[in-house]
Amino acid sequence: MDVTSVQFQQTLKKLDKDRAYFLFCRSGSRSGTACKIMSVHGLTVYNLAGGISAWPR
Questions:
Q1: Structure pTM?
Q2: What is the pLDDT of residue 56?
Q3: Could you give the C-alpha distances from 24 to 16, 40, 55, 56, in angstroms and in order?
Q4: Angle, vertex CA 19, rays to CA 47 and CA 51, nearest 5
Q5: Ramachandran region, residue 14 (left: φ > 0; alpha: ψ -120 to 50; beta: rest)
Q6: Exposure on the CB side of residue 32, measured as CA atoms within 13 A
Q7: Chain segment 3-54, per-residue pLDDT in tens
Q8: Coil, helix or strand for 44?
Q9: Helices (H) and strands (E) in the chain — how many of each?
Q10: What is the pLDDT of residue 49?
């Protein structure tokens, strides 16, 4: 899902609130924004701090 998309808010309405969602992007910034928005909608979300760039190799 693209947090910058105009359809993002509509897509959130279709997600199951009984599930947890793990979010990531390259730096962790967009996924952090998405986590804030999604949690307001009652979803359980986790963000990969530092994004994919911080993932150990």
A1: 0.86
A2: 78
A3: 19, 18, 10, 14
A4: 15
A5: alpha
A6: 8
A7: 999 999 999 999 999 999 999 999 999 999 999 999 999 999 999 989 999 8
A8: strand
A9: 2, 2
A10: 85
Token pair, residue 2, equals 């693209």
* Beta-carbon count within 10 A of 50 CB: 13
CA distance 50 to 40: 22
d(CA 15, CA 54): 27
Task: Answer yes or no: are the C-beta atoms of 29 and 35 closer than 8 Å.
Answer: no
**Which tokens hold the place of 41?**
């909608």
The answer to whether 45 and 21 have CB atoms below 8 angstroms apart is: yes
Could you give the angle at the alpha carbon of 26 between the alpha carbons of 23 and 29, nearest 5°?
A: 65
- In the block, tokens 């105009």 appear at 6
